[in-house]
């Protein structure tokens, strides 16, 4: 099965057994077999559910995180766009918090050249999930720009979060807030610059 979004409940349940193992044994079929065996489940299910191995397991994990992030964030209707984005990223960090070692190892595997395509695909899916949940429906060129900016903010925050030991990841949330404020200042500065700078056609007509 190649599309992690269509994985069965049994596949996500199997991942749950792996994520519950202490310490986390890694993203491999052998680790998943051991986790299923420890839970009293047929270990052969690992190969049936994830024939694509570790890459497919990681894709399924982050698909579940995308869904849980939106569900946990709840109703965002009363917030502005930036506040919605902030709430969704904070929600995502809360979902990931119990699985920090699993996330660290997943990122290590995704950084390998052979997984570059998968890493890009998962990142794009996460950015899209956040923007859609935040209420953004734009289909113009800004669609790409906003998602690129969001990925830069989220990626930096995630790396910071991996070493954050503060209660409730407070330091990571503060880091996220600083990044969002910086992007806001840049956006306002660009808007002011665009207003002051005449377009080429206007300048030509004025001369």
UniProtKB/TrEMBL annotation:
Q: Does the record's keyword annotation contain Transit peptide?
A: yes
Query: Does Lyase appear among the keywords?
Result: no
Q: In which pathway does it act?
A: Cofactor biosynthesis; ubiquinone biosynthesis
Q: Which domain of life is it from?
A: Bacteria
Which Pfam families does the record associate with it? COQ9
One GO MF term attached to the UniProt entry: lipid binding
Supply the InterPro entries for this chain. Answer: COQ9_C (IPR013718), Ubiq_biosynth_COQ9 (IPR012762)
Query: Which GO terms are recorded in the biological process aspect for this UniProt protein?
Result: ubiquinone biosynthetic process
The record's keywords, sorted A to Z, are: Lipid-binding, Transit peptide, Ubiquinone biosynthesis
Q: Which family is this sequence assigned to? A: Belongs to the COQ9 family.
Q: What does this protein do?
A: Membrane-associated protein that warps the membrane surface to access and bind aromatic isoprenes with high specificity, including ubiquinone (CoQ) isoprene intermediates and presents them directly to COQ7, therefore facilitating the COQ7-mediated hydroxylase step. Participates in the biosynthesis of coenzyme Q, also named ubiquinone, an essential lipid-soluble electron transporter for aerobic cellular respiration.
User: What's the protein name?
Assistant: COQ9 family protein
Source species taxonomy: Bacteria, Pseudomonadati, Pseudomonadota, Alphaproteobacteria, Acetobacterales
